[in-house]
């Protein structure tokens, strides 16, 4: 069970969220991807925006529990990175402005390893006052 060097799903998700020219690399692999933006003082709204984008762009089938569940865990893992382990926003006077990338594909050489999903987040987090934020990045990967 080894990862293919040109199929690093997390790396492609991160590069795509930072520079949209990398989306063509995902297309070449025949994988699914979408990119979007979300800003909120509530973490549940961040999760909802990413889930909605994944369903709308047919990255996941919303009526299949394992797909929604895998996406949820990838989102939460990415949010842990952005929020430094404390997935709280408005309740502790923090807000985020994020760009996200969702990538679904088969990163392993063995077909039996199945599909995986990666969520990359990049943007700002800070006090809800313009100019009092800093950059943050997060990545979550989960099997489907």
From TrEMBL:
Gene Ontology MF term list: mRNA binding
Self-association state and partner proteins as the record states: Homohexamer.
Organism per entry: Fictibacillus macauensis ZFHKF-1
The protein's name: Hut operon positive regulatory protein
Signal peptide: none
Function as written in the Swiss-Prot or TrEMBL entry: Antiterminator that binds to cis-acting regulatory sequences on the mRNA in the presence of histidine, thereby suppressing transcription termination and activating the hut operon for histidine utilization.
A GO biological process held by the record: positive regulation of gene expression
Organism superkingdom: Bacteria
Stated family: Belongs to the HutP family.
UniProt keyword annotations, A-Z: Activator, Histidine metabolism, RNA-binding, Transcription, Transcription regulation
């Amino acid at each position: 069970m080894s990862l293919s060097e040109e199929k690093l799903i997390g790396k492609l998700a991160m590069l795509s969220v930072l520079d949209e020219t990398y989306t063509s690399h995902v297309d070449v692999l025949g994988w699914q991807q979408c990119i979007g933006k979300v800003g909120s003082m509530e973490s549940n709204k961040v999760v909802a925006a990413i889930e909605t984008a994944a369903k709308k762009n047919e990255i996941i089938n919303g009526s299949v529990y394992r797909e929604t569940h895998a996406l949820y865990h990838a989102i939460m893992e990415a949010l842990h990175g952005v929020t430094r382990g404390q997935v709280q926003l408005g309740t502790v006077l923090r807000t985020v402005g994020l760009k996200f990338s969702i990538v679904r594909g088969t990163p392993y050489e063995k077909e039996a390893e199945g599909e995986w999903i990666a969520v990359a987040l990049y943007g700002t987090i800070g006090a809800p006052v313009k100019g009092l934020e800093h950059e943050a990045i997060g990545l979550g990967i989960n099997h489907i």
